[in-house]
TrEMBL record:
Organismal lineage: Bacteria, Pseudomonadati, Pseudomonadota, Alphaproteobacteria, Hyphomicrobiales
Cofactor(s) needed for function: Ni(2+)
Boundaries of every Transcription factor NikR nickel binding C-terminal domain copy: 54-129
Known function: Transcriptional regulator.
Entry-linked InterPro entries: Acetolactate_synth/TF_NikR_C, ACT-like_dom_sf, Arc_rbn_hlx_hlx, CopG, CopG/NikR_regulator, Ni_resp_reg_NikR, Ribbon_hlx_hlx, TF_NikR_Ni-bd_C
GO molecular function (one): DNA binding
Note accompanying the cofactor annotation: Binds 1 nickel ion per subunit.
Natural source organism: Rhodomicrobium udaipurense
Protein name: Putative nickel-responsive regulator
Domain Ribbon-helix-helix protein CopG: start-end pairs: 2-43
Name of the gene: nikR
């Protein structure tokens, strides 16, 4: 690992330290690494440079909407190569929350998510997408951060 020095004004450093405390980081370095990874992931996605991605698609829909449940299931079956898993929760007599974990070509994942969220009766849709190469290259660092977090919250 290479050491880098940065200069921050006192106000920005104070805000950053508050952020660290709220998020449970044990070091400024780990927080900066996570912020950089996040920003680089977003840039890669914005520039359409991520060939493959993993994603979490969540949406609330009215299951009373005519044929909507059937259409959603049919769409997922038609794209079974992208859908890893789904979670279905009944919120009340009319509304359901569904979460779909997706993996595959970034454009295909995004198209499936957009088509799902555009269905009449689907509302509150959200797609969180991460370039697949970013998940593999930093697996060890994120696992170490998780252990630190577990220790910090168990005290």
């Amino acid at each position: 690992m290479e050491r880098v020095t940065i200069s921050l004004d006192e106000d920005l450093l104070g805000q950053f330290d508050s952020y660290l405390e709220k998020r449970g980081y044990s070091s400024r370095s780990e927080a900066i690494r996570d912020l950089l990874r996040d920003r680089l992931e977003q840039e890669k996605l914005a520039e359409d440079k991520a060939e493959d991605a993993v994603a979490c698609l969540s949406y609330v829909y009215n299951h009373e909407q005519r044929e909507l449940s059937r259409r959603l299931a049919k769409t997922q079956h038609a794209h079974h190569h992208l859908v890893l898993s789904t979670l279905h929760v009944h919120l009340d007599h009319e509304n359901c929350l569904e979460v779909a974990l997706l993996k595959g070509n970034t454009r295909d994942v995004r198209k499936l998510a957009e088509a799902t969220m555009a269905e009449t009766g689907v509302r509150h849709g959200n797609l969180h997408i991460v370039p697949d190469d970013m998940t593999r290259s930093h697996h060890i660092d994120r696992r170490m951060h998780s252990r630190r977090f577990a220790r910090a919250t168990s005290s």
